[in-house]
Amino acid sequence: MRYKQEPNWREGRSLFKNSAPKELRNWLIDRNSLTRLLTCACNKQQGVFSVKIFHEAWEKPQLSESRLLRMQNNELGFVRQVHLYCGDTPWVYARTVIPRLTLHGELQKLTKLGTQPLGAVLFANRHISREAIEVAKLTNKHTMFDAATINSASSTKEIWGRRSVFKISTKPLLVSEIFLPELPSF
Asked: What is the pLDDT of residues 154-178, one digit of tens each?
């Protein structure tokens, strides 16, 4: 198996220099609940929004994820990978990394969401804050590309995504959202 490199994540402000497709720019930089935005967009198409779990496990995060979350070198995190659908069409691949130290008290429920969208839980919490949004273009040489596109009908060569650290009180978690070609314009 060929080694895949991590995407080159950059601050959202450099988005336009990175030549992100015009139809994705608002999706990439919007700071509101993606779950809410996708649900509304899906309803307009008379579809049903849903979450399908791709993979959940305790595992070692990617190096850049560990650094952003200030995790130790070999520290495991809870990694949740899902696809967000409108009807039978995947629109977004989402990857969440939650450090063990974040998962105390009521936040333990974050490992048992099942098909409940994480965004609904995060944006319902009044103690939440979001750090800067980073944006990246992904190709088949990048990690996450294969997992993101596995259910996509498109044979796209590049996709775009964003990620940011959320903090509930002071406890961090990282959410990466990769937008698939089937996603309609914002």
From this structure: 888 999 999 999 999 899 999 999 9
- Residue count (the chain): 186
Question: For 59-85, how does the pLDDT look when each residue is reduced to its tens digit (9 = 90+)?
Answer: 999 999 999 999 998 999 999 999 999
Whole-number Å distance between alpha carbons of 16 and 38: 23
DSSP string computed for the chain = -PPPBPP--EEGGGTTTTT--HHHHHHHH--S-HHHHHHHHHHHTT--EEEEEEEEEEEPPPHHHHHHTT--TT--EEEEEEEEEETTEEEEEEEEEEEGGG-SGGGGGGG--TTS-HHHHHTT-TTEEE---EEEEEETTBTTHHHHHTT-SS--SEEEEEEEEEEETTEEEEEEEEE-TTSPP-
Tell me the CATH number of domain 10-179, given options 3.40.1410.10, 3.40.920.10, 3.40.50.300, 1.10.1060.10.
3.40.1410.10
What are the extents of the domains in the chain? 10-179
**pLDDT band at residue 1, thresholds of 50, 70 and 90?**
very low
